[in-house]
Write a structure and sequence with these properties.
globular, 12% strand, 3-stranded parallel beta sheet, alpha/beta, Alpha-D-Glucose-1,6-Bisphosphate, Chain A, domain 3, two-stranded antiparallel ribbon
Length: 169
């Protein structure tokens, strides 16, 4: 699989991440083998292309849907080690979440809901995907500055947890 992304960087840094059949980013030797194949191309006219309809018919293009989403959510929920701890606080704990204008909004909120968290507040200004990141100069969840709006909302509602995801997660 290929994910075209600049992650939390400006759009001019767009590139792509390559994933292997196990769903993880490629590692040696696959990375080297793929680059060797790319570098072996000396004339782009030699690159084989295919119409989308033809690729679909050949089984080479598959658009993923709810079945993949459901499996992904189930896999995330399996990572929980102490559901009993969640059960003890899920009605009381307040979580502020920001997807930082990225793709995490739907899956993160779904997982939190399915785990039983009832008080999840989303930073509305950063809820929808927007590659221009209009509310933050550097949307990296490792950066304190990326949390400014989450902190503001957290203070307003008395949040226990502030949570942000990288825009391409």
């Amino acid at each position: 699989g290929i994910n075209v992304t600049a992650s939390h960087n400006p759009a001019e840094y767009n590139g792509y991440k390559v994933y292997w059949e196990d769903g993880a980013q490629i590692t040696p030797p696959h990375d080297v083998n793929i680059m060797d194949a790319v570098l072996a191309i000396t004339d782009y006219a030699d690159v084989k292309t295919m119409d989308k309809d033809e690729a679909v018919k050949a089984g080479l293009y598959v658009q993923i849907g709810k079945d993949v989403d459901d499996k992904y959510i189930a896999a995330l929920k399996k990572q929980v080690k102490h559901q009993d701890a969640i059960d003890a606080v899920q009605k009381d704990i307040k979580i502020v979440y920001t997807p930082l204008h990225g793709t995490g909004n739907i899956p993160v909120r779904r997982v939190l809901k399915e785990l039983g968290f009832e008080n999840v507040y989303v930073v509305k200004e950063q809820e929808l995907p927007d590659g221009d990141f209009p509310t933050v100069s550097y949307p990296n969840p490792e950066s304190e500055e990326a949390f400014e709006l989450a902190v503001k909302l957290g203070n307003e509602i008395g949040a226990d947890i502030l949570l942000a995801t990288d825009p391409d997660d």
